[in-house]
Amino acid sequence: MKFSKSELEQASELIYQQMHATPQYAWPLVGQELGCEVWVKHENHSPTGAFKVRGGITFVDWVQRAHPEVTGLVTATRGNHGQSQARAATRAGLSANVYVPEGNSKEKNRAMKAFGAILVEFGTDFDAARLEAMAQAELNNWLAVPPFHKEIVRGVATYAFEMLSAAPHLDTIYVPIGCGSGLCGTILARDALGLKTKIVGVVSEHAQTAKLSVEQGKLVETNSANTFADGMAVRVPVKEAYDIYRHGAERIITVSETEIGEAMRLYYRAIHQVSEGAGAAALAGLMQERELMSGKAVGVILTGGNIDTDQFLTVLGGDVPKV
After folding, report:
1. What is the C-alpha to C-alpha distance for residues 225 and 235, in angstroms, rounded to an integer?
2. Per CATH, the architecture of 53-144 is what?
3. What is the pTM for the complete model shown?
4. What is the mean pLDDT of residues 83-89?
5. What pLDDT is recorded for position 147?
6. CA distance linking residue 286 with residue 112, whole number of Å
């Protein structure tokens, strides 16, 4: 998979019919604390509070063109992807059937319903919900929305296209990894612009499927993915994503729950931004590698701010939520 600059420009034009480009700022207090020039890409400022909204716009546009007979979509999510698909599908007059694992974020569930999702709780984790959603697609003649698809990635890639167009001097960008659309979109945007920026993927210590797969040179599933950073809570790797990031990422690093919590507190303390666990993982990765990045210009993707209130209060209190 690859995109030309014009393909990303076209995706941007489509997306800007429904939202503005999100800002990227070099924040001095964050930079002073970490000893480098730190640019934050604010995907928490999107219409759903997360980067996934972009892929929903481009994917549903493709569905309407390629599959005009479709009347309903079905997908699985921990929340942000589901908001994205529900928002885009209902705007297009399609039903949005969204499967989430039992015990999913209450506030993300409410947001998905507000965007028009028909929400079903199933299974103990994302991957169980995903399998059920795909089965329901066959039974109900819905179009199944995978977590990784070329048109989703093309939309997601526009955030990195914006950031790298505004700050082409960045030495490195840190990106969290769930199913991989964000990391792959950043790699493909960099390549489309012909830049040499290094891309570092960040996984949770409790959801290392992407890192293990790259290290072992094959797809590696894990037995669980129990992290409060639910956007990264994936235990089954996506081959199409793996095929891109195993070559395109500089490296993949692991951050702990404690490090993610520290990054969330830094975001709030230094720039008064609310981040969910996955949203702060990129900054946690940079904090871990601050000596390596000393004096450089570095980008971090604040992928989303959709965290339940009680969990955020726990983090601000110096602890991490239990899962």
Report:
1. 5
2. 3-Layer(aba) Sandwich (3.40)
3. 0.96
4. 97
5. 85
6. 31
User: Which amino acid is located at 41 in the chain?
Assistant: K
Residues 6+ apart with CB under 8 A from 310: 321
Q: What is the 3-state secondary structure (H, E, C) of the chain?
A: CCCCHHHHHHHHHHHCCCCCCCCEEECHHHHHHHCCEEEEEEHHHCCCCECCHHHHHHHHHHHHHHCCCCCEEEEECCCHHHHHHHHHHHHCCCEEEEEECCCCCHHHHHHHHHCCEEEEECCCCHHHHHHHHHHHHHHHCCEECCCCCHHHHHHHHHHHHHHHHHCCCCCEEEEECCCCHHHHHHHHHHHHHCCCCEEEEEEECCECHHHHHHHHCCCCCCCCCCCCCHHHCCCCCCHHHHHHHHHHCCEEEEECHHHHHHHHHHHHHHHCCCCCHHHHHHHHHHHHCCCCCCCCEEEEEECECCCCHHHHHHHHCCCCCCC
Domain 5-51+150-316 has CATH 3.40.50.1100: yes
Distance, in Å, from the CA atom of 293 to the CA atom of 203, rounded to the nearest integer, reads 19
Could you tell me the two tokens for 192? Answer: 């489309």
Burial class (CB in 10 A: 0-12, 13-18, 19+), 144: middle
- The bridge status of strand 251-255 relative to strand 297-302 is unpaired
For residue 310, which amino acid is it? D
Please report, as a single letter, which amino acid is at residue 209: T
Range list for CATH 3.40.50.1100 in the chain: 5-51+150-316, 53-144
* 246-271 tens-digit pLDDT: 999 999 999 999 999 999 999 999 99
